[in-house]
Amino acid sequence: MWEQIRTNRLRSAILIIFMGTLLLAIGYLLGLFFLDSIIGGLAIAAAVWAVMCLVAFFQGDSILLGISGARKITKSDDPLLYNIVEEMTLASGLEHMPQVYIVRDAALNAFATGRNPQKAAVAVTSGLRSALTRDELQGVVAHEIAHIKNRDVLLMTIASIMLGAIVMLSWYATRAMFWGGGRRSSNNSGGAAGAIIMLVGLLLMILAPLFAQLIYFAVSRKREYLADASAALYTRYPEGLASALDKLGKSAQKVKTANDATAPMYIVNPFAKRKASTNWMSTHPPITERTRILRSMNGSSFMDYERSYNQLHHGKGVLPNSTLE
Fold first, then answer.
1. Is the pLDDT confidence value at 32 over 70?
2. What pLDDT sits at residue 40?
């Protein structure tokens, strides 16, 4: 498992470096066109990234819980839910039990947050809590604890903040270029060559948020498979999560506080647009596919999940090699 976590950290670093490169590229163009100082543009981008990452690292969990209107509960508030979180903490091998929260929302959904396993939380909506059986609720909680165990939560929090920074800088830059023309337009910027550079810069500023979002969503989708496989392992009962996903897939209610940056944090798409097909812009794998994989498992191990996934995708694997050794 520790090798798997190291693999996740390496991939997380690659993702953050890629998104950071996009952010610095936008800063470079800001400095080139609007500040007459490339260093100034890079400094602005780096400062925005650093501040937002610090906020994400130290306050990201509190921000997400606060935005969601989540309320922390104790064992006396909901003994069944609290006991399930205790059980799945032990099954996963986590040393610290996550805090438990309820979100007052009729939608069926759940998420995990926290910068590390020592400071983590699992939140479920009141709609999900009332709609699921014990086995189904256990499957959902196991899935969210798997995200904590696999160190997914911090990555997705930082990635969402970086996505927000890229979108924000791109938004201001493109509007400044359209309405102000950029300071470079008044200089001797090289005629046709300058026009080409400006066109390339404009395309980058428009496309950078899209590229960042595609990478962010792709990483999110892959981590959902690993969390599903982990939940099957922790509960030893894949049908529990499969049955829960069925109910979540049939729910048409949107999570009121969800947005594009936080959507991948939830167990299913919080906007309730859960079509059977998937595409590059989807935050999660199709629910029908996830349930088919879980229900065709012959056991509850990572290898059983990988075989089930391979049968559906004609031999193409999805889990890290370290989990299968």
1. yes
2. 83
Does 217 fall in a domain? Answer: no
What is the count of structural domains for the chain?
Answer: 1
- Please identify every residue annotated as catalytic: 144
Q: What is the DSSP letter of 266?
A: B
Alpha helices in the chain, H assignment, sequence order: 2-30, 38-68, 79-92, 126-131, 134-149, 152-180, 192-235, 238-250, 287-295, 302-312, 321-324
Q: Tokens representing 162?
A: 């970086």
Q: What percent of the chain has pLDDT over 90?
A: 38
Q: Does position 302 have pLDDT exceeding 70, yes or no? A: yes
Report the mean per-residue pLDDT for the chain: 81
Residues 6+ apart with CB under 8 A from 254: 107, 270, 271, 272
pLDDT exceeds 60 at position 180? no
Please give the Cα distance from 140 to 249 (Å, whole number).
13
Please determine, for residue 276, whether its predicted confidence score (pLDDT) is greater than 50: no
Q: Which of 86, 148, 138 is nearest to 111 (CA)?
A: 148
| Cα→Cα distances 126→5, 113, 236, Å | 31, 17, 25
Residue 128 covered by a domain = no
Share of the chain above pLDDT 70, in %: 75
Is 30 part of a structural domain of the chain?
yes
Domain that holds residue 172: 2-61+157-202
Query: Is 68 contained in some domain?
Result: no
Specify the 3-state DSSP secondary structure of 37.
Answer: coil
Rounded-to-integer distance, Cα 204 and Cα 22, Å = 9
